[in-house]
Each structure stands twice: as C-alpha cells, then as structure tokens.
C-alpha cells in the first residue's frame, strides 16, 4: 500500500512512479495540491481523498475515484480507515477554520498516524491520540518550531515518534526542524531527508 499526502516538489526517485494506491490532500493551496506532482504518482487505480475544496481542481485526473471529506468525517479506502480532522490558523488568515481544510488520522496495522495539515496550535489536537505525528514547523503560514513543540509536548503527545514537516520549500529551513527537535520532550523526533 503506497499512500502519498500532499505531494509537492517530489524527489526524483518518486517521479514517474505512478505507484499511488491512495493520495490524501489536506487543502487546495499550490504546495499541497500540485497537479504536476500528482501526475507523477497517480494511476488508473489510485483513490484520492481530499478536503472538499479540492475536488473541482482534481476533476481532470485519470484515477479510480476522487472523494471529498470534511473535518469530523471518516472514510474507508482500500482497507484504510481515514478520519479528517480540523486544520486551521488561529492567529493568521491563510487557513481559516470556515474553509474546511483538513488534517488526517490514518489507521494502519493498529497504529494511528496523524498528519496535521497546515495548522496552528489548535485545541482539537488534544484528541488525536497518535502513535506517529507529522506537524508543520516553519512559521509564517503554520506553527513556528516553538509552537509546534508546545503542541506536541502538551496536546498531541505521540506514543512513538513525531516528524517535522512543511519547511525547506516555500518557507522555513532545516534549522526550524532542528530547533523543534531540541524542544520536543515527550517522544522521539525523526527529521527526514527530502530524498
């Protein structure tokens, strides 16, 4: 099972793979819904589950199915249980709660994987109860490294590991990920390379 979440600026080893079983899209901004990147990974059997606001932009893709989802809804796709959770800003205007942008909780082999989407430190994070979490750390459009660490330490509290994301592309640097790693004290932090 190959699952992609918000594919953008894919490393060369993922280009022309067309191996996606499932693609999850948190919202319609260009660095999360990239048609060029999607074309590198989709095939006729791919299922795409996206925030409802994305569905019209995906209409021309040749895939098995395209479904929209709103915060609070659940879906089962190819045996994966996927829950959409809120993802929004509280102190900036880029991702208003009213838009219905989402994060995801994916259940695989009794593990809960939480992808926060483009979120600030929001109260809904307290109920996600993940084994693994992916959280944005770059600031500007999402949480800063300090805010993300606070969210992880106080609300998200992953059982296994947290992975910083949303840096080294549009905004943020690897220094944000390193700062986040120093501040997290409730679980292991794994900084992934782009390749």
What would you note in describing this structure?
This protein is of the alpha/beta class and 195 residues long. It has a single domain (3-189), classed as Metallo-beta-lactamase, Chain A (4-Layer Sandwich), CATH 3.60.15. The protein contains three helices and eleven strands. It has helices spanning 35-41, 145-156, 174-183; strands at residues 3-5, 22-25, 47-51, 65-69, 74-77, 80-86, 102-108, 111-115, 132-136, 161-165, 188-189. Strands 5-6-7-8-9-10-11 form a seven-stranded mixed sheet. A four-stranded parallel sheet has the order 1-2-3-4, with no helix packed on it. A hairpin with a 2-residue loop joins strand 7 and strand 8 (111-115). The longest helix is centred in the C-terminal third of the chain and has 12 residues, at 145-156. The radius of gyration is 16 Å and the shape is globular. The two termini are 19 Å apart.
Summarize the structure.
The strands form two sheets. Strands 5-6-7-8-9-10-11 form a seven-stranded mixed sheet. Strands 1-2-3-4 form a four-stranded parallel sheet, with no helix packed on it. With 195 residues, it is of the alpha/beta class.
């Amino acid at each position: 099972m190959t699952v992609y979440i918000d594919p953008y600026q894919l490393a060369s080893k993922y280009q022309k793979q067309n191996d996606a079983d499932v693609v999850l899209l948190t919202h319609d901004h260009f660095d999360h819904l990239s048609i060029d990147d999607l074309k590198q990974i989709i095939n006729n059997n791919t299922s795409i589950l996206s925030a409802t606001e994305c569905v019209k932009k995906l209409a021309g893709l040749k895939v098995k199915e395209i479904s929209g989802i709103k915060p609070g809804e659940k879906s089962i796709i190819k045996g994966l249980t996927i829950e959409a959770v809120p993802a929004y800003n509280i102190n900036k205007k880029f991702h208003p709660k009213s838009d219905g942008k989402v994060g995801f909780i994916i259940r695989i082999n009794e593990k809960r994987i939480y992808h926060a989407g483009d979120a600030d430190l929001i109260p809904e994070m307290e109920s996600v109860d993940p084994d693994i979490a992916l959280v944005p750390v770059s600031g500007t459009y999402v949480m800063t490294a300090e805010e993300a660490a606070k969210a992880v330490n106080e609300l998200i509290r992953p059982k296994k590991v947290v992975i910083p994301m949303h840096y080294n592309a549009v905004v943020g640097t690897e220094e944000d990920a390193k700062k986040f790693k120093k501040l997290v004290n409730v679980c292991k932090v794994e900084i992934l390379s782009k390749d």
